[in-house]
Amino acid sequence: MIELPVKGRIRKYIFLGIAASLFIILAPIQQSINFSRMTEDLVDQIVIIPGEFVTNFVIGGFRGLAADIMWVKIDHMWHSGRWFEVMPVLRSITWMQPHFIEAWELGAWHLAYNLYAYAGETEEAGKYIEEGIRFLKEGVAKNRNTHDLWFGLGWIYYNKLKNNDEGARYFKIATRFDHPSYIDRMVAHAYRKKGDIESEYKQWQHCLTVFTDDEYHINISKRHLEAAGNRLREEGGL
Amino acid sequence: MRNIFIIAANTFREALRNKLLNVLLLFAVIAIASTRFFTIFAPSEEMKIMLDTSLGIIRFIGMLITVFVTGGLLPREMSTLTITTILSKPVSRTQFLLGKFCGALYSIFANMAIMIVILSAILFLKFGAVNPEIFKAFVLIAAEFVVLCAITICLSTVSSEMFSVIFGILIYVIGHLTNYIQYLADRFDSFAMKSLLLSLYTLLPNFENFNIQNAVVLGANVSLQYMGKALVYGAIYTAVMLIIGYLFFAEREV
Lengths: 238, 254
Description:
Chain A is an all-alpha fold. Chain A has helices at about 10-40, 50-60, 65-80, 85-95, 100-120, 125-140, 145-160, 165-175, 180-195, 195-205, 215-235.
């Protein structure tokens, strides 16, 4: 703060004026910050329910820790056979931390595999797979730029529903983002299971152009490319 | 300027001798160091649990250190009458206030630096590397403490040490809930109520602006543009609080 060349009351009014002007400047800055938080996905969910409000009020910066405690609680629930209690807790975690990828993956897997198997031959079984897909799609909507959930979605279609069209589609989307080499290979596998040998052949060719320093990936891709080539020749496509 | 540095250095030395702050720091260091053992509960999420816990500890203990260091600065000087001796020398009230503010910041940053070094060392030992994005979270946590320090010093110009500390903590908590005020304002039809809530939303500090902890821990990339905006917000709010604090302090009889 500088010493102004005026004394007494006038100086105080000047300082008061400066403070008021700065406060006025704060409003548009706050608006701009709110906009950035939204576009950069930094906004934490606001929930006006007693538990969550109290949680926020008391622990403030410990939102992540609360999610971790619940994550640990899931493990305990799982081992004590309380499988149906897992989902509401996972929901709370994804509500508090929508970018916690593992929570979305675990929830979808739990619904589509564990609860599906638990339901056995009942009508409900199919609903659990649908629920798993819905849960994962919700996660994808909040985490569009990461391969994990796109791959997870493709995997349920491919592995659980034997819907290779959708499986290949989601695996393909997953490869648009930073991803491990096996996803490129999974696209080709899905094409093969779908019976689209030409697309499979092209995908194996593509596999040889990516992850070129991964010896395992290149070897396996070469082997599959050869097999796909043979199949294509048998069908008269090559 | 020289006077400000001298007062700041003295304030820093005083804070170093404060046993409560040393105990808080020791507690934080032990807590951060022990986060390594929490990970046995969820081995697949070691990094996340360590970061969530450690950043939470840094923010919580850092907040306590900030309000305890700052809240007592002026009231203690006034109760022991040392302020009269200082102000009888060629030291203006502005210099005195700024000196105290800078001194408090020295000790807050020094405490924070110790906690950050410990956390970085533990992360490095455990994972062999430290994600540089975490340092963005540290920068904004530091900015949050600067604002809180300015608010507490402003409160301490008109009140006792206890009042400043309690209200400092209260404002910190409210500052993390200001988004709820905007949320409520959006849901009111009454113009008067809406205006009141929106005025409160602007007047109260929004500490959530400095909260990028979740994003950083979960691997998101926070833009430098956002960092810049949050820092400008912090700088302006700090300036406003110091001006208001000065206006109160100028009126106060010592």
